[in-house]
Amino acid sequence: MSTPKKQPSFAFLLLLISVVALMRLPMEATKSALANFTPVGAMALFAGSYFKPWWKAYLFPLLIVFIGDLLINMLIYKGQYGLMYQGWYWIYCIYIVITLIGQYFLSKPGISKIAMSSIGSSLLFWMVADFLVWAGGGTDLRTMQPLSRDLSGLLQCYWQGFPYAFNFLLGTSVYACLLFGISHLAFRQSNTVQTIH
Which residue among 35, 71, 177, 196 has the highest number of C-beta atoms inside a 10 angstrom radius? Predict the structure, then answer.
């Protein structure tokens, strides 16, 4: 008779993404495109893949991101954007969709699935977030005037957002490797110990 595999504890998973979430603070302090080298996308994918029941996959990562946003706004930006930045709720909706990607495409995570999910979720973030910047009257960095309300203006918005999107992709990929890798090693070790005993 085979021994059932030990499943990851919720406390371990929550601790893991909480520790990784702290890396947002030094990155955000750079106030550059490097600030988008963030673990948020990876946290959403990881939570979607591992957190059970389903509502924990959405609630707890968003709560951690919300707390992080409050700390960033208070400690780094000294409250100049108010309690939260403009349009934060749309960004959180993107995180919910990324969690959904983790839930459905990473129910059995593998290297290729994690890579594809990291790329797909990063592209989704870039396309939607920069569209919202353009739709909200974002600034053309070449002229410091509002972006034109046509395809040219939208493409310019995507182009000037590309460094941020690229760093979001790098951050999602690197942190996804860390989160999924650490959990895999930890759970493999605990399963080995359980099998021996």
Answer: 35
What pLDDT shows up at residue 140? 93
Q: Is 26 exposed, middle or buried (0-12, 13-18, 19+ CB in 10 A)?
A: exposed
Q: Where are the domains of the chain?
A: 10-187
Q: Give CA separation, 95 vs 47, 100, 177, in Å.
A: 11, 9, 18
Cross-strand pairs, 145: 140
pTM flag (> 0.70): yes
Distances (CA, A) of 122 to 4, 8, 58, 134, 139: 35, 26, 18, 18, 22
CA angle 126, 49, 119 (to 5 degrees): 25
Amino acid (1-letter code) at residue 97 = V
Q: Is the pLDDT of residue 2 over 70?
A: no
